[in-house]
Amino acid sequence: MSDRIRVIVHNQSRLLRESILNILDDCFEVIDPQSRLATGLSPKTMWNGRANGGPDRYSDGMSAGGAVVTLEPPAGNGSSERTADIVLFDLASLKTDAWNFRNWYGEQAKLAMIADEFSAHHMRMALRFGVRGYLLNRMAPTAFVLSLRLIHAGEPVVPEECFDYFSPTALRRGGEDGAIAQHESELLGYPGLYPRHARILKLIMDGCSNKEIAREMGMTEDLVKLHVRHIMQTINVRNRTQAALWAAQSGIIQEMEYFLERAAP
């Protein structure tokens, strides 16, 4: 088939790349980017539904279906072969290689990210690179294949949690100190943490004491201590320095800032 959807799986895990190869049907051609990754797929130029050199997945008399795998042509070889249609990558690649995807794989390739869980912060990062699909590992294989077809057709694909997070309706929660109830929803991607916790983490990063945090946030010092203890237990750190480092690396401060912008009248 000359009109197969060409997919590059840009991921260091050979196990994941070969698992995706086994999921995709014969409408796809998987390009193994060996020039970018340490290990390639099995050394076959064509993959026809056989796994690890075993028998066909289909009974006798039926054609063996499955994606075709080819090796990425060396850079600068003057090949006129068309470029990839879709580039699949994970969170680690988003942080290290996303800047180079367009140079490596062409401007026309549609980008799709595979993640373990939904994170609005990581999704916004991905969108800035032009990602058209945010796929979760828990997807059923049939849903995964359909998602790739939709992405190839130009349709964006995002997880269900995205709609919950970006909905204009926030959950109404009462103040833990008995104050007037405020609109506040849990920060998705940070289970058990709310914008007030992110504000406290930001003040901890700024070197504020509990007394200074209490004054800044208009609550008692004892309540601040309860919040700090809850934060440390939730993110599994032992002291304020570790909490500040976690906050700086996790993206929760940007998440809080986005929440405040969304909640503003």
UniProtKB/TrEMBL annotation:
Secretion signal span: none
Domain HTH luxR-type: 186-251
GO terms under biological process: regulation of DNA-templated transcription
InterPro entries given in the database record: Sig_transdc_resp-reg_C-effctor, Tscrpt_reg_LuxR_C, WalR-like
Any one Pfam family match given in the protein's UniProt record, by short name: GerE
Keyword terms: DNA-binding, Plasmid
Superkingdom of the organism of origin: Bacteria
One term of GO molecular function: DNA binding
Name this protein carries in UniProt: Response regulator transcription factor
